Amino acid sequence: MPRIETDICIIGAGSGGLSVAAGAAQMGAKVVLIEGHKMGGDCLNYGCIPSKALIASAKQAYAVGHGAKFGVANEDADVDYAAAKDHVHNVIETIAPVDSQERFEGFGITVLRDFARFISKTEVQAGDTTIKARRIVIATGSGPFVPPIDGLDDVTVHTNETIFDLRDRPEHLIVVGGGPIGMEMAQAHLRLGSKVTVIEGDKALGKDDPETAGIVLDRLRAEGVEIVEGAQAEKVSGSKDGPVTVHTSQGDFTGSHLLMAVGRKVNLDKLDLETGGVAYTRGGVKVDAGLRSTTNKAVYAVGDAAGGLQFTHVAGYHAGVIIRSMLFGLPAKAKTSHIPWSTYTDPELAQVGLTEAQAKKKHGAALQVIRTEMHHSDRAQTEAKTTGLVKVMVVKGRPVGASIAGPQAGELIGMWAMAIANNLKMSAISNTVLPYPTLNEINKRAAGAYFSPKLFDSVWVKRVVRTVQRFLP
């Protein structure tokens, strides 16, 4: 039986695992990378990349029918759903070499394509190979959670792992789950020609700021997405090839296809963590602030496997944290206060730091909330994308959170993420000179709105100005 001894063994070749592997190997560590499924993980194959590619196709279809305000005649889009899926897979294939086995072997990494499991506290087995490592990194990510709803076994259930392989456009897509995945897929499919109903047991986009989320939901409803909130799915009926009905407390909803988008479950079940002495819960491996296992100091976890925020960019951030610890023996802690996220609906929705409600609870009277409507952006006016707002939570001159709904919110949130990550003051934003006209000016306008009352409404400032004017030559 082959046996390998190495510095670092990484289980999972998604964003976190690949980042750790590349960084560690290029800095001189011996690395083994184990992947039992597809290189690139969920993000490349089933998540971020395919969903954004499908959204791009949907935006093109929408633009064809909404050009009159720009002087271009509205036309009914002739959508080829299968061709849109071809675009999705072409994008995946274009990016795949960056995450490929060949590329990482080029870094000097030993790549094993099998599922791994612990056989001791410092050893894992992948196929017939045993790997003994000084440090083991669990980077197995997560997969779609399908709840045990009565009747699901009798119908065809799609998740994000299967919906991108569907070649025939759904006549009526029923989406169970009103989170980011559910709402993105709902709008995309509506724009590609499907009727869409979203069923959410609580509030749609419930983890985001209610005001900014409401802007997005209003737009989706206006386009034709049926969103039913407070409707817990209790039972499903139908057949594998026929219509499917979701029975809820708010009534029954029948469609041609069913997409489950109610959340994620961490991929830990194949690892035999008990044998490795690694404590865990349903939410992930139990780790300390440095992402190290609380019960086996040879083990780290990153990304979804570490619990907490489930975003690709978090996994990449975690990689940097543990590399500092594993390679250099330096203290490093993972934080969440500066982590942004975005939902890529149209308009987009983005958040970093505290929401307004969270900031009020934490900071009380010290909080100032600055609001700037998107229609104040000249660039937004030129593109007729004026729905939305930027809302910034400020404490003692520093932003502690920002919520954005509007065009390219996922890009706009970057300025506030940088400010919060580096503990910058609002003056750092207001002092920044930006090209005109750009959407990013709306962020500077928000910073200006913070300072305006201090400058223009201040009796003291006006007195100083009048006094200075008397003595200026």
TrEMBL record:
Residues 7-318 form the FAD/NAD(P)-binding domain. Residues 339-446 form the Pyridine nucleotide-disulphide oxidoreductase dimerisation domain. Binds 1 FAD per subunit. GO terms for molecular function: flavin adenine dinucleotide binding; mercury (II) reductase (NADP+) activity; NAD(P)H dehydrogenase (quinone) activity; oxidoreductase activity, acting on a sulfur group of donors, NAD(P) as acceptor. NAD(+) binds at G177, G178, G179, P180, I181, G182, M183, E184, E200, G263. The keyword NADP applies. Its EC number is 1.16.1.1. PROSITE patterns: PYRIDINE_REDOX_1. Pfam families: Pyr_redox_2 (PF07992), Pyr_redox_dim (PF02852). Its cofactor is FAD. Keywords: Disulfide bond, FAD, Flavoprotein, NAD, NADP, Nucleotide-binding, Oxidoreductase, Redox-active center. Gene3D superfamilies: 3.30.390.30, FAD/NAD(P)-binding domain. Disulfide bonds join C43-C48. InterPro entries: FAD/NAD-bd_sf, FAD/NAD-binding_dom, FAD/NAD-linked_Rdtase_dimer_sf, Pyr_nuc-diS_OxRdtase, Pyr_nucl-diS_OxRdtase_dimer, Pyr_OxRdtase_I_AS. FAD binds at K52, T140, G141, S142, D304. Belongs to the class-I pyridine nucleotide-disulfide oxidoreductase family. This is Mercuric reductase. It comes from Flavimaricola marinus.
